[in-house]
Amino acid sequence: MTKPVYINGVGSVSAQKTFDNSDFLSDIKHYNDTVLSVVDPDYKAFIPPAAARRMAKGIKMSTVSAKTAMDEASVEENEIDAIIVGTGLGCIGDSEKFVKDIIDNNEQYLTPTRFIQSSHNTVAGQIALGMGCKGHNFTYVHSAISLESALIDAKMQLENEEADHILVGGVDELVSHHIDTHRLIGHIKENPVETMSVLNSGSKGAIFSEGAHFFVLSNNKSASCSAELVAIKTFNSLSQEVVSEKVRSFLMEADLTAESVDVIILGYNGDVEFDEYYDELANGLFKSTPQAYFKHLCGEFDTASGFGIWLGNKILEHQTLPTVVHLNTVTNSNPKTILIYNQYRGENHSLTLLRKC
């Protein structure tokens, strides 16, 4: 029998004040923009100021998020057996700066720091160095399913009893060149949108953002555990017509039906071209199920599904579905099974199933 995988701790740095695990979306930040930055925690409380000055934003966000998850799970640094990170862009800010330095300095007198910190696996490496973790250290760069790939890796290791505690995270940071490029190709909304009304924008593109979400996974349930990671599956491309069929078979593999799902969390981002994928489930298979969404709070980025998984975990912990994420009027006062569905521009679809511990 396969060993269960538990989420013993979560950490989030996002466009909302989610870095405080004692709070659950009680103080919502509203935006009227096309790009959102994270609400910065007090980095000095987690990182020595001298070190923080040399760190890319993605590393700082991840350090705080990872530490928060480990604190909640009551896991010491020497107990972490592996660190697995998913990222769409890595530390792209330092990559940009290094290339700019090459041009500005005519390829002369370059310091190696930005080059060293510009690779995609910098976050996983820096966290491991800070903790002294010499175990499995891996980074997945799989676009909008980067985090899910990391979670699948961790889940397989835990099920095969190759590790006891694994730190898994997803991180992406915003930089000006990336924003400019995506504006140019129409992936970012042309005009500012009030985030709480993003589903009514009637326009193409999404509101872009950034964030870091980390989870401590274990095959031993701790007192802090709120959710079991039951199953996770990714698809590179799906037509809209087969989404419901794929969801049905995914649930069937876990001996569940659509009626077994107490809450479905959908990755709506207000892009009129691609939100129809979510409509397929919201208006069909899960019409009578409590529905939630989250990108009006955290924005869109390659590992935004991390916010969705954080949200699912918190719903199971607090046994409540906050009004701010509620998509329909159906309610459930005792949610036990949560399904999260995410995709980006019709590609890289993911299904994640959580169950209350």
Which SSEs are present, and which pair or pack?
Elements: E1 6-13, E2 32-33, H1 49-53, H2 57-73, E3 82-86, H3 92-104, H4 113-116, H5 122-131, E4 136-140, H6 146-159, E5 165-172, H7 176-184, E6 193-194, E7 211-218, E8 227-237, H8 243-253, E9 263-266, H9 276-285, E10 291-293, H10 295-298, H11 305-318, E11 337-344, E12 347-356
Parallel strand pairs: 3-4, 3-5, 9-10, 9-11
Antiparallel strand pairs: 1-7, 1-8, 2-6, 5-7, 8-12, 11-12
Describe this structure in words.
The chain is an alpha/beta fold and 357 residues long. The chain is 31% helix and 21% strand. It has helices at 49-53, 57-73, 92-104, 113-116, 122-131, 146-159, 176-184, 243-253, 276-285, 295-298, 305-318; strands at 6-13, 32-33, 82-86, 136-140, 165-172, 193-194, 211-218, 227-237, 263-266, 291-293, 337-344, 347-356. Strand 11 (337-344) and strand 12 (347-356) form a beta hairpin. The radius of gyration is 20 Å and the shape is globular. The two termini are 18 Å apart.
Mean pLDDT: 94
Q: How would a crystallographer describe the biggest sheet?
A: 10 strands, mixed
Beta fraction of the residues? 15-25%
Rg (CA only): 20 Å
State the share of residues found in helices, binned by percent. 25-40%
List unreliable stretches of 5+ residues. none
Specify the oligomeric state.
Answer: single chain
Structure annotation, total helices:
11
